[in-house]
Amino acid sequence: MASTRELWGETFSKDEIPPYPCPLCNRGTLHCVPDSFRQKISRDVEEQLETQWIDPPDAVHQFNLFLQCGIAKCGAIVSVQGDSQLVERDNREFVEDRYFYRLAPQGMYPAPPLAAVPKDTPKLLKKEFETAFALFWIDLGACANRLRIIVEKILDHQRVPAARDLATRIASFKNSEPDHATMFDALRFVGNIGSHEGKASRDTVLDCFELLQEAIGELFDQRKSKLASMKQRIVNAKGRV
Hints:
Layout: E1 12-13, E2 30-32, E3 38-40, H1 43-50, E4 61-69, E5 77-88, E6 99-109, H2 123-138, H3 140-157, H4 166-173, H5 178-197, H6 202-219, H7 223-236
Antiparallel strand pairs: 1-6, 2-4, 3-4, 4-5, 5-6
């Protein structure tokens, strides 16, 4: 999976939902199920609107909708819920349709993958990734902490000896995998902030998912080795393959 950063914005228009990757088949993209969008406002907000205490754009609604994989043989369903709010269009030419609803998801289940996880990745590690994908929409600090846990699990799988702290384990890993070890150090720092301060920036968490995608692609799918072998095979055959 190439970088998909453009998909993971905090909000999107009700009529322009990003083509999220399917969490089940990892091949299809998700599309809104027709007529599945619902939204409501609480009674107190409704009363404030009726008395004109607040204007419609200031009223926060709660919404839910369903997305479905576009591959017929898959058809996976993802539920989405969060807040919605009227936003004025930048283009004032649409006089009759001056406002539109902008959605801010607070949860997706099952959550779309923010990184490609190779099929040979250990099952327990895949579950940790699924948890991180879900936490991305709920709590970025907790998501960052989960990424730190993923680093621990990867080191377990690589049989890096237990130590008093993660920094020591990563330092030990540098002997065999210096590039990945530096990457894991970056994830450790972000995870520590998520654990101790309970927060993390969206961009930084997305950076971490990209870094992890590269690391597990090599560690569990040997992508660099496969590419090197492919190049050498073509060279040896002088292009006649």
